[in-house]
Amino acid sequence: MAAEKLSIVKAINASLRTALETDPKVLIMGEDVGKLGGVFRVTDGLQKDFGEDRVIDTPLAESGIVGTAIGLALRGYRPVVEIQFDGFVFPAYDQIVTQLAKMHARALGKIKLPVVIRIPYGGAIGAVEHHSESPEALFAHVPGLKCVSASNAADAYWMLQQAIQSDDPVIFFEPKRRYHDRSEVDTEAIPGPLHAARTARPGTDLTLAAYGPMVKTCLEAAAAAEEEGKSLEVLDLRSMSPIDFDAIQASVEKTRRLVIVHEAPVFLGTGSEIAARITERCFYHLEAPVLRVGGYHAPYPPSRLEDEYLPGLDRVLDAVDRALAY
Which of 1, 3, 51, 226 has an alpha carbon 20 to 30 Å from 67's alpha carbon atom? Predict the structure, then answer.
């Protein structure tokens, strides 16, 4: 066994290191990923050990970064692109949705684009404007893209490995508020499927479904609810496209209630699709409407107000109480 306790930052760094060591076609590209090691130090030490032709400091030009990665992928490379902050991805949106997502279908399956785009996302770090967005639903809506988010270090390590090995483009959302959360990582384990949900905590009375940064919040809510005699199941979705609806359905058929939690605005968020699909699949099992907890339909506020904007323990427990009251 090669298990040790790592932060999510260290787990991602170890995963990138493993990919660079095992496949000479893997490249890392992004703003300040080389000499600086990234603004969150996720790529720290990689350029020193693998050279400037494998870990490449790019200009401040997200569209150019992704466009270059597409060209490299067409020539057989496996680029891993870092977008420095979530709100910086939009200059590259055209390249991602009109080229990266479409090329496989446009070529009738003859061309593959194994590109990973890493995006630190979400709030609660006290940052300025454009540094705390949750744009996952915009990309999950686009056919041809896979979107995933790890909530713990073990998943961060293995899901990134699987994303890099995938022949399809993957958007890898990293919950930056959880970057320094530590958990056990076994680098020799056999990982489960990339897009499979996992039960983070079993329960019988209600299902809390979340991904990325909100999984920890839901686990805290389940622990608080247990003190009042309520048994909440916490489902870590791990993937926003595709979504493991079978796992959600199995949980809801057992608990008969579902609350979906994410940082992104509730309006047209990932939770909307889950709520609609589970209502269709589980109509005769549900004992309460599917409820959603998330950000407000407003621009992300200044950092002094983000605690009011972001869903926290009280808002999750309020939704739990409303669902259980039916």
Answer: 51
H/E stretch holding 235 reads strand 232-236
Q: Report which residue type is found at 132.
A: S
User: Tell me: the pLDDT tens digits for 88-145?
Assistant: 999 999 999 999 999 999 999 999 999 999 999 999 999 999 999 999 999 999 999 9
CA–CA dist 73, 22 (Å, integer): 17
Instruction: Give CA–CA dist 221/201, Å, rounded.
Output: 11
First to last CA, the chain: 48
SS3 54: coil
Cα–Cα distance for residue pair 115/77, rounded to 1 Å: 9
pLDDT in tens, 172-217: 999 999 999 999 999 999 999 999 999 999 999 999 999 999 999 9
Task: Tell me the residue type at 253.
Answer: E
Locus of tokens 């050279």: 51
**Active-site residue set:** 131
